[in-house]
Design goal:
- Four copies of one chain form a homotetramer.
- Chain A has twelve helices and 14 strands.
- Chain A is an alpha/beta fold.
- Chain A folds into two domains: 8-141, NAD(P)-binding Rossmann-like Domain (Rossmann fold, 3-Layer(aba) Sandwich); 144-321 and 354-391, Dihydrodipicolinate Reductase, domain 2, CATH 3.30.360.
- In chain A, strand 11 and strand 12 (288-293) form a beta hairpin.
- The first copy, chain A, is globular and about 65 Å long.
- At the A-B interface, helix 1, helix 2 and helix 11 of A face helix 1, helix 2 and helix 11 of B.
- Strand 13 (298-302) of chain B pairs antiparallel with strand 13 of chain D, so a sheet runs across the interface.
């Protein structure tokens, strides 16, 4: 007799009506059927909170007024009923306070990025993560794509030779006009430093480009020279960033991120060149990984279950045969898969396999602070603090 | 106080270990969180059946030995616990027998295509569907894509003017060699007429091309002239089909479907041309709909929540902002969404809104039989039986 | 001391002001600098004729009133001054009469296609070509593209294994409205059977698709089943064609050609599939040849001087390094290069190496007549006359 | 009676056997038939020189031993026979000395870029150009593409609104290995500072990216922050460059140029974003200009004679109908067309309409020197000398 698989009980803080990202988390978690939603504190508006919970099938008593109540109440429930994993999808300034308290109360955490509002706060959170022995994951969703792992594997196994150049870009256009002033809530809190932190575009998407570059190249960005800009009247934070960088193993490159590239959607893209060839991947066409071996025809490695050219890490992140597109939700589902594995195995490490964690959070925040300081100063190059550079190589 | 949303209870026939399509159904149903799996008869192999159920978190007593037992046992359960929707993912020859009995027992049905093994059997099933007043859906997944609805809407609203040409193609390559002989189960039963019916490629994917053409063009294919082929030694059924066709409203076109186009993945593609412009859509890049207005620059309509150019039917089939790829599972999830709507609203019609139903099954089977007869005979043109041609315009 | 290279003296019949194709011929011939224009009878309008000649730098006395005068006058000139090659760029009905007389008078001929108005006339011309021992070339320009030769070479050398499927399409849109009625001269004579022959679209571009399919596949199209259409009121000839076909070595396929695919430009495209892989080439992106080897990643073979994967025939048709686009004029220049080689070497064969000749003309006309007869009749399949099928393999 | 058009008599310095660029110049000049080659000093190797001249049909007496002899001898010929335009296709260090002397002797000049080896030398040349009243053109071939002019026109006419971002990139891969050491002559002299100047990649292709950015954006690059690199052992000059920049009218951007992006061909690409939309153009697919208007579907403007959306400057640079690819040679032929117009009209200005001239040379050299100085120093930003910034807006 086989024991029936149990689902992991998860709760949400944030994600009331109209939240795109919370819905995406629930959809992603739903794909592989390993989670069930058991509680939430979705909104500070009690009506919104209750409506959201009801629509999601939650019992009213597990739809809590605020996150403190959620943590306290769930902690008192029997272990068999109690929430196991807390998903944090609030504005940025709440990420760290909630995460710290949840971890301390014994819950696993999966948090939207950034990990916190500034580097000191991430460092404090880091200590809590380490001591809690709970899983802490950070929703760097793009690192969940199968072909990103394929690219990383090909670099690591030497297919490109020695890496020389890394070009990563993320030119969005949705903040080309004053959408915050026109009532867009997502744009609104993102431009409020008390909720968003000191970085605008650089924090929102620059960190995605940064973590992707380090993840694929397998080396850390050490020195950067940055230019930030803000292009709409009344906007407080940056909406555009470009920088030159040098990496720890000798590669150099360029990072672009912008939210005023009018007309662009979400074209995160990375190119890596070594002395034996190059790789190119576009998030908007995630099934294709372009490989240009030196002096041979370019090849397009396509994803799909059973494709013989895929590495193990890529293969296990695919669900469908070639030609059946998988996308953003499936990439996020891969992160949820890593969380599920770690939780079910009772791992006492804080790091779920294949899921970006607190080290990625440290790196990202150091990147933001260093870039903004460099932009404001006169020095050409600034170094991302050395004690934090160990994290570019995420464990698998 | 808001009542908590209830999930729809679903069961599976078929889909033991290794079944791609059953897993895809479960993943698709999981995305929007409106279904819960409550029972199954996954495999005739008892071990496989129990293992599958256990892995899916089912209680052993609702993991039934065969589909007859499943139907009988579920029917005896209290209404609050009883399965509501049966998903049929068996080989083709079982689709109709199971569907007939499930409908008669009062269950809603969502069946893999084809609806049955031959036209007579689909007609018999059609009668049962009508009299049962239960929902019957057919997994023509490609009709769940948002941009397919956008294309259909643009044709219907006259953006292309009078439709003249429809070119639909579906060239796969996975049967280029004797994969059935090499142990591929999917390929094996598909080439066994007792399990698959008289059509090979034409039934498996030709019907997808056919239903897509009628759906988007908004008119029926009336006359066809077909050529079928079989290219691998020992293969019993066709692996390749091409045909010319004429439609009821005056358009003409070409339909290609093949499983021996070596190296191709799943590039279902449709082009429609009218006197005012043309449209083009590729399943492998489903977010883009190419529109070529006469004497104006070509435009690429991109999908995404909130894109102002999308029709209502397309918009409601999107989950993510532009540039966040959605794919095959999300298209199938759209069909599950239609099923959920219909079931929750207690619709007494057999047709779930936006979900292909038994009429699509009738059309598809008439198409298969007409094409094969035409291929074998000497007549240039054969007519798809007229009494069945009402179904090209799926209700929304 | 090296003798200075002499340029080949060429003359034109047709190509007065406003002729696109005549200008393209002169531009193509100019690229490699092996020809000089010495005479012409450009227009039956004497003013237009003289203006055209003057603009091209011709002396007035070699700008003749009509083609008969041109042939007679040039024949009387000393060999050192006399035209060597006549370019025929008139409407279709004049191609054969002029070519016959020019060949008989000892001139080499490069004619726009079709070779003549009907099959009997091509056969008569064929006899003259053979007996004249002069070069006769036909401007099937698309057979001048380097990557078409690369595709042909890969098929011939077995890279694809046994060829099973050939899909060739040529969907233009420029005749979607009554452009002839609106004064477009090119469209006007093309729709006049006395100038154009019995075929409209099938003759104008269907023959390009046909010759490309035979050229690349290395086998002849033997049986066809065709559907033609005409979509604009008052139009006399077909503007749209689709057909199924079977080839001499067992491959089957589909040919599409249309001039009412609104919004399309000039996307001639061919796909060939064998049991070991597939190839795909698009005229609008001529530098890329897509190769899909079975069970290996797809590859994009790019053209360019020195690319190590190119066959000799492709390499010698390139002028620029990879990434420097070559296009239609360069493809036509490759045909001029073949003519130059043949003329300079004093070849007594009628066939210039790499240049489609009278056999291609015979095949094309047999194709047109067979397709139209099939379309009008009740038979499913019609055979292209067997005695003409030797020409599918153009000599290199 | 119309007077016969005379061809412009041109001569070459440089371009012996094996020179790609000289052959490209001759092919480009040949397309529109407005030039005839009358003399040359092709190589310092007398055998090579004579063979080249003979192969090109030159009389031996106009195939000169060196460029000094060429200039002297041609100057003594009667005006009706004398060379009018000198094409300079030597290694870089000879560009300025030859150009100066040729202009002084009354010849028009079309020079490969760069104009000279350093800024002082360009300034000296600039004086000679001004005083000579002869045409001086610089082969910035990419500024000859029709769709580059279309892009420039759309920016200038406000289609994008206020320009905010310019991203220009030119990642080649051909110097990924030590091809100079392996005998590649083109690579060899390019890495010799005495022949090439102080810039490697930045001079060879960085200047193309630079001039394209200024040309399309219609504003000048004022401040730059640059990083250069050299990646192959023994290489003397840079093979890779990246920089941030700020423009005179408020736009900022990034410029990338590299010759060690292994596997890349020649993908010069520019993107420009304003507050109303964005534009994107790729040299390897030059017929398409992507336009992303804010809040409207993206559009692809395609080139071709008669396309109603093209501006006059783009239209007059097209030869063929849409879908008939034009490429690099046609872009260069557009520069030759501008030279021909200017020479035939006896313009006493030194600037041929639509042809980059000495001002572009000044800008390019100031760019090279500023970038290298910035790279070597500690300052974050360096300014391209202000007195030279007037040239970003090329006259049409």
């Amino acid at each position: 007799m086989h024991a029936a698989a149990k689902k992991i009980r998860m709760g949400f803080v944030g994600g009331g009506e109209g939240s795109f990202i919370a819905r995406a988390h629930r959809q992603a978690a739903g794909i592989d059927g390993r989670f069930e939603l058991v509680c939430g504190a979705f909104s500070r508006d009690p009506q919104n909170n209750q409506r959201t919970g009801a629509a999601l099938g939650l019992a009213a008593e597990r739809c809590y007024d605020d996150w403190q109540t959620l943590l306290e109440s769930e902690a008192r429930l029997p272990a068999e009923q109690r929430m196991q994993l807390l998903i944090i999808v609030t504005p940025n300034h709440l990420h760290a306070p909630i995460a710290r308290q949840a971890l301390s109360a014994g819950f696993h955490v999966f948090s939207e990025k950034p990990a916190a509002l500034n580097l000191a706060e991430v460092q404090a959170l880091h200590s809590v993560v380490i001591s809690s022995q709970r899983i802490y994951g950070l929703a760097h969703t793009y690192l969940g794509y199968a072909m990103v792992w394929q690219a990383r594997d090909m670099v690591a196994s030497g297919v490109l030779g020695r890496v020389r150049k890394v070009i990563v870009e993320y030119p969005q256009g949705w903040l080309s006009t004053d959408v915050a002033g026109q009532g867009n809530k997502q744009a609104g809190w993102r431009d409020d430093p008390t909720q968003s932190g000191i970085g605008g575009c650089i924090g929102d998407i620059g960190t995605h480009a940064f973590s992707l570059a380090e993840f694929v190249a397998g080396q850390s960005i050490q020195f950067i020279s940055a230019m930030l800009g803000s292009h709409v009247e009344g906007r407080q934070l940056d909406d555009d960033v470009a920088m030159l960088f040098k990496m720890t193993e000798g590669a150099s490159g360029v990072l672009l991120a912008s939210q005023v590239c009018a007309g662009e959607e979400n074209p995160l893209k990375i190119r890596v060149y070594g002395d034996k060839g190059g790789l190119e991947w576009h998030q908007e066409e995630p099934a294709s990984l372009i490989h240009r071996p030196l002096n041979e025809p370019m090849r397009i490695l396509r994803s799909g279950v059973g494709q013989p050219w895929l590495c193990a890490a890529a293969s296990q992140r695919m669900r469908l045969p070639a030609g059946h597109p998988e996308g953003y939700l499936e990439a996020m589902a891969n992160l949820y898969g890593g969380l599920a594995e770690a939780i079910l195995q009772g791992a006492d490490d804080h790091q779920a396999p294949g899921v970006p964690g607190i080290e990625t959070g440290l790196r990202g925040m150091a990147f933001i602070e260093t870039a903004i300081a460099n932009h404001r100063g006169n020095a050409k190059w600034s170094e991302i603090p050395a004690q934090l550079t160990g994290a570019a190589n995420h464990e698998q």
